[in-house]
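Support request, priority: normal
Reporter: lab tech (M.K.)
Component: structure prediction queue

Hi team, I submitted a job for Large ribosomal subunit protein uL10 from Kolteria novifilia yesterday, and the status page still shows it as pending. I've pasted the exact input below so you can check whether something in the sequence is tripping the parser. The sequence length should be 174 residues. Please let me know if I need to resubmit or if it's stuck on your end.
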Amino acid sequence: MSRFVKELEMKHLRRRMDGVEDVVIVNVVGMEALESNELRLELRKKGIEMQVVKNSLARKVLADMGYPPVDEILSGPSAIAWGGEGIVELAREISEWAKKVEKLQVKGACVSGQAVDAQGVDVLSKLPSRVELIGQVVGMLLGAGSAPVAMINNVGAQVASQIQQLAERESGDG
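Reply from support: The job had stalled in the queue. We restarted it manually and it finished. Here are the results:
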């Protein structure tokens, strides 16, 4: 590949990955064409992109973009996936596909400036997503707020009941 073509490839990859913070690196060698197309289509529906890369060019692009060194991860045939709602969703989608398609192997990831191995990606895939975490926090806040309200309502109901009993006694005696 000529230097000019390599520069074009790197420029194209930089442009596609502009603003991307987290990536997952996989090995797609040996996948059937239909599996690969289905994988890319399903990932694209979820806002996740994937591109097969030449390792030496990918190393340069990732280094230029401020990613940590990924020499160990970028060995052998590689593809880079990025996008989605965050690293958890990205890791989850890639891990689910790796379970479905035997030839797809997770190699590692770059997460918040740190290189992570395949086991780290598996751990990330099991974490709750940002949306799920927000839902849990809101649920806890609503649950915590409802307990004092229930106690206040309970005390108010008890006072009202006692007043009603006193009123009934007064009307019964009178």
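The beta strands are 23-27, 48-53, 78-83, 105-111, 114-117. The longest helix spans residues 130-173. Let us know if anything else looks off. Ticket resolved.
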